[in-house]
Amino acid sequence: MSNEDEISPKSFVASAGHYMDTFTGAIVPPVQTSTTFARNAAYELPGDFSYGRDQNPTYVQAEKLLQQLEQGAGARLFSSGMAAFAAVFETLNSGAHIVAPKIMYHGGQSWLRRIAKRRNIGLSLVDQSDLSAIKNAIQPGKTEIVWIENPANPTWDICDIAAAADIAHAAGACLCVDNTVATPVTTQPLLLGADIVFHSATKYLNGHSDVLAGALVTRECDGRWEEIGEVRHLCGGILGSFEAWLLLRGMRTLFVRHEHASNTAMMFARHFEHHPKIDAVLYPGLESHPGHDVAKRQMTNGFSGMMSLLVKGGAEHAKKIATTTRLFIPATSLGGVESLIEHRATVEGPDSIVPKNLLRLSIGIEAVEDLIADMEQALEAV
Ligand SMILES: *Cc1c(COP(=O)(O)O)cnc(C)c1O
Questions:
Q1: DSSP secondary structure string, 254-268?
Q2: 3 pLDDT above the threshold of 70
Q3: How far apart are the C-alpha atoms of 167 and 186, rounded to whole Å?
Q4: Cα separation of 39 and 47, whole Å?
Q5: What is the rounded end-to-end Cα distance, in angstroms, of the chain?
Q6: From CA 105, how far away is CA 177, in angstroms rounded?
Q7: Catalytic positions, please?
């Protein structure tokens, strides 16, 4: 069988990391539920395992897939995306400074605002598609982390990752990329110079809306990476073995799911681009999207299944559409095989800066003609 370095991540994950149990010949990795691992007669640990809060063979197998997908030097799983997010910022000392997008995953920004207030950490929120804004916000010697989201919720702003990495590195900062939406199917930020890739593995990586998980993948096993490992070990934000196993199974079909969703989303976006009841379709695959040129260069295999519709009318009208669809389910989250629709401003709450007429769509793997017909009937009925 080929060496791990010679085959593509697509083939590597399809086979669950070329798993083969040498004793039984089983080709599917088992769920290892043991929380503790025995020592031998010399009172030494026979394997790499001691206690389940540190490591477990099921996490290790899932982490191997993640590491290959993002072409990193190491990968770590967490109990949710937010647990992984918090672990990154837990490495900062008071007095440090962070640059992050003005428009990004709302929960992540809430966490940043919280640590900025409580721990004397500086926070600059910028338009991530404007490289000079990132550059101007950086405080050399103080800025430790530049965080970007690829593409950013829910307007799908694009940041040029390679250029942002150069800017961050020139000032001694590290670049972290939330790659939840683009996924390694379209973009591998570490190969573009990013230092850490973040995933809410709850979304596309798992893909079936039945697991909460987070992941970090690093380009180098440096001091920050060691510390992130320590944070996971000491704060205990590890997921259970069953969840790790479900995630492992989900990742085996990541490429077919994501590619299919991207193709369907492109057709869907084109269909509604000039619709009389819609002001704009926000999708990086459309020439009308401000980030299209960078996205075309940076996203090499589709533009994901995520888009937003700015509908004609206000918040109430938009919410009515979201509850009149029959196939699209009015629910938050994204990246599952079923299509979802949500009124983002309601979900984010009173401090949201999201336009009130914005509906966020997560395109699943249903037939494109059914999804188009469903949206047509909802726009017509309301
Ligand atoms: C969902 C999400 C998160 C948070 O992840 P959880 O798994 O819900 O904790 C972070 N970033 C993005 C882009 C997300 O969609």
A1: HHHHHHHHHHHHHHH
A2: no
A3: 23
A4: 9
A5: 57
A6: 12
A7: 53, 105, 178, 203
Q: Beta strands 340-343 and 196-200: pairing type?
A: unpaired
Indicate which atom in ligand 1 lies nearest the CA of residue 334.
15
CB of 180 sitting under 6 A from ligand 1: yes
What ligand 1 atom has the least distance to the C-alpha of 82?
A: 9
What's the confidence (pLDDT) of residue 4?
Answer: 55
**What domains appear along the chain, each with residue ranges and CATH number?**
4-251 (3.40.640.10), 254-381 (3.90.1150.10)
* CA 361/CA 341 separation, integer angstroms: 5
Residue 291's closest CA among 93, 108, 114, 158?
158
pLDDT of residue 6: 80
Centroid of chain to Cα 265: 18
Q: How far is the CA of 318 from the centre of ligand 1 (A)?
A: 23
Determine which residue's CA is closest to atom 7 belonging to ligand 1: 81
Burial class (CB in 10 A: 0-12, 13-18, 19+), 270: middle
Task: Please check the confidence at residue 2 and state whether its pLDDT lies above 70.
Answer: no
CA separation for the pair 209, 195 (Å, rounded)? 28
The model's confidence at residue 303, banded by pLDDT at 50, 70 and 90, is: very high
Could you give the CA distance from residue 137 to residue 131 in angstroms, rounded to a whole number? 10
User: Is the Cβ–Cβ distance between 176 and 196 less than 8 Å?
Assistant: yes
What the block records as the tokens of 356 is 């009130």
Q: Interhelix angle for 254-272 vs 241-252, to 10°?
A: 60
Strand, coil or helix: 215: strand
If you measure from the C-alpha of residue 151 to the centroid of ligand 1, how many angstroms do you get, rounded to a whole number? 13
- Give the mean pLDDT of 156-177: 98
* Structure tokens belonging to residue 221: 């096993």
| Residue 105 Cβ < 6 Å to ligand 1 | yes
Distance separating alpha carbons of residues 172 and 14, to the nearest angstrom: 38
